[in-house]
């Protein structure tokens, strides 16, 4: 039988595909004095430093006047700017600088062990920084005098509070080689708010881009003339890791599509406009971004990638997502991307078929560091002769064998019945994430996967839309058994699992001790089945999210067995479901699991992206 790819988009998914959630938890990154060289080391500081109690907290305050000489290493680098203020400076700005200097010095002298626990409270350093940025013009004038250790927190506060003037100047005068959103906008020691889990402000993003433009027009000859001998050393602006598009649309925030357009416009304008002063070489900057492209934006993005090849602004794509893009356009974009930067290719609704896939795949395979390949809803061509179809499939498999770093493969809505062994056997290394939603898998496919080297490495598994209620149930349980030690994320939406199948699977499911997410939406489960699942899942200490279906008890006149279309479209008795929710909540409280989210919301961006696991 010819292996063809069929298209079926699940009814419960939005046109853009599955939602991407904000990552839970995540590394807490902060800056410390040892992270970078202090500005003006060894310079004398006017004034004495002493401990003064303030609200029960020991705070170092800078006092003007005569006093013993102190060095930056003794008093803390933040005191340099405050103590060096002259009599002609703005008194209000000086006061703010000194407040920030005292707070920073106190933080430096505070013992770092044991580490502080996460808190919603802001530190004194953060509050002082926020106060300093209230007057943006004064803050911009003071930036050359501030130690560079303060710049990371200044950036986060300015980005959060939309202090666009300061934000632009921070990017323009950034004193480090790398400016990374993933490092600066995460939860840190001074502020527990993780801005990467929110869609970015349009104003803040535009300010960053304007600062980058100003930076590109700063010649090398001017970069070393800054106060305190500081050079503008920015070489890499990493804007990756921003929250992808969700269901909610906020006109005040910037989507990934808007971000792609804004960066592309900057690339084109830079190439067309050149430098501000002819004859002076601009400082080159590499901009790392996640790009989104469709038919409407293809020509624009292609021009931007071409422009960046000979521009001081070098555009590097980390993750590429192309939607509804013809084959030739997809190939043209892939040829323009840097092979050393790309880690993910995500093709959706592209009407490729096996023939188109065999044309594109060799261009994808040249990215030797590619870690994720996602092929969503790739349409098959039923008119393709069987011999050509088999040849295209074999060629596709051969090209798949070229990937050496592939860790995630998504073949959603592809007809792989009886062919999964051929696909997975060609891969050089074990997968950690495998998405086979609506692939019409057979029992032998599941048995092969359970015995394969991939099973014991899987962190994420998506079998949505495959019927697991009949002869597939036993091999599915064997697959769970094989993956139990590593599995973190399990998606089983619309798998025809009723109470009988769920109860039979619970013993092996609860052995997945590290499981964090379980998706069961669209399965015909009753309230009794959900309660049994809740009781047994108490043993899974890492479980944080369960997306469950509306219990069949809450429907009226439901046929049995209910098809998935009925479960997704039939009306719910709201009173019955309110009682169900209340009972589940009480059971969670009684078992000490109130922190676990049980929800029917499939559009809430709760499912984790592979790279966030």
UniProtKB/TrEMBL annotation:
Keywords: Cytoplasm, Leucine-rich repeat, Repeat. It comes from the Eukaryota. Residues 1-50 are annotated as: Disordered. The keyword Ribosomal protein does not apply. It is found in: Cytoplasm. Its main location: cytoplasm. SUPFAM superfamilies: RNI-like. The keyword Secreted does not apply. Belongs to the PRAME family. LRRC14 subfamily. This is Leucine-rich repeat-containing protein 14. The gene is LRRC14.
């Amino acid at each position: 039988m010819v292996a063809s790819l069929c298209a079926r988009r699940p009814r419960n998914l939005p046109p853009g595909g599955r939602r991407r959630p904000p990552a839970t938890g995540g590394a807490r990154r902060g800056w410390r004095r040892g992270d970078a060289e202090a500005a003006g080391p060894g310079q004398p500081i006017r004034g004495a430093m002493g401990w003064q109690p303030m609200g029960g907290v020991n705070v170092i305050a800078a006092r003007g006047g005569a006093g013993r000489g102190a060095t930056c290493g003794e008093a803390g680098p933040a005191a340099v700017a405050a103590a060096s203020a002259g009599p002609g400076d703005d008194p209000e700005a000086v006061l703010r600088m000194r407040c920030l200097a005292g707070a920073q010095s106190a933080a430096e002298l505070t013992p770092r062990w044991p580490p502080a626990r996460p808190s919603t409270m802001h530190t004194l350093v953060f509050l002082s920084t926020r106060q300093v940025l209230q007057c943006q013009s004064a803050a911009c004038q003071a930036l050359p005098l501030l130690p560079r250790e303060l710049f990371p927190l200044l950036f986060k506060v300015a980005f959060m509070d939309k202090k666009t003037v300061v934000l632009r100047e921070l990017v323009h005068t950034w004193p480090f080689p790398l400016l990374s959103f993933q490092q600066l906008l995460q939860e840190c020691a001074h502020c527990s708010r993780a801005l990467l889990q929110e869609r970015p402000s349009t104003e803040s993003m535009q300010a960053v881009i304007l600062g980058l433009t100003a930076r590109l027009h700063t010649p090398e000859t001017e970069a070393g003339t800054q106060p305190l001998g500081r050079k503008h050393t920015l070489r890499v602006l990493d804007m990756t890791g921003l929250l992808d598009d969700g269901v909610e649309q906020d006109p005040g925030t910037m989507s990934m599509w808007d971000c792609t357009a804004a960066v592309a416009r900057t690339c084109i304008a830079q190439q067309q406009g050149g430098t501000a002063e002819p004859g002076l070489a601009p400082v080159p900057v590499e901009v790392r971004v996640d790009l989104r492209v469709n038919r409407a934006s293809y020509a624009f993005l292609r021009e931007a990638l071409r422009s960046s090849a000979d521009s001081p602004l070098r555009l590097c794509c980390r993750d590429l997502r192309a939607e509804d893009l013809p084959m030739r356009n997809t190939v043209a974009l892939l040829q323009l991307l840097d092979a050393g930067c790309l880690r993910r290719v995500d093709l959706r609704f592209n009407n490729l078929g096996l023939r188109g896939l065999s044309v594109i795949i060799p261009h994808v395979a040249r990215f030797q560091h590619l870690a994720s390949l996602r092929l969503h809803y790739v349409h098959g061509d039923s008119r393709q002769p069987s011999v050509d179809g088999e040849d295209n499939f074999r060629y596709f498999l051969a090209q798949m064998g070229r990937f050496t770093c592939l860790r995630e493969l998504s073949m959603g809505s592809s007809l792989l019945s009886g062919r999964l062994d051929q696909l997975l056997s060609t891969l050089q290394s074990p997968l950690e994430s495998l998405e086979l939603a609506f692939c019409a898998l057979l029992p032998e496919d599941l048995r092969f996967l359970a015995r394969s080297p991939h099973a014991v490495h899987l962190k994420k598994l998506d079998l949505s839309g495959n019927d697991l209620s009949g002869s597939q149930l036993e091999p599915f349980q064997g697959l769970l058994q094989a993956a139990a030690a590593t599995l973190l994320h399990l998606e089983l939406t619309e798998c025809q699992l009723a109470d009988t199948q769920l109860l039979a699977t619970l013993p092996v499911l609860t052995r997945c001790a590290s499981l964090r997410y379980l998706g069961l939406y669209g399965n015909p489960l009753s309230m009794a089945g959900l309660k049994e699942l809740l009781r047994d899942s108490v043993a899974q200490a890492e479980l944080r999210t369960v997306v469950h279906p509306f219990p069949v008890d809450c429907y009226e006149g439901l046929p049995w067995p209910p098809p998935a279309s009925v479960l997704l479209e039939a009306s719910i008795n709201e009173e019955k479901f309110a009682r169900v929710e209340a009972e589940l909540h009480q059971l969670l409280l009684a078992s000490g699991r109130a922190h676990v989210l049980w929800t029917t919301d499939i559009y809430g961006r709760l499912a984790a992206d592979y790279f966030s696991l």
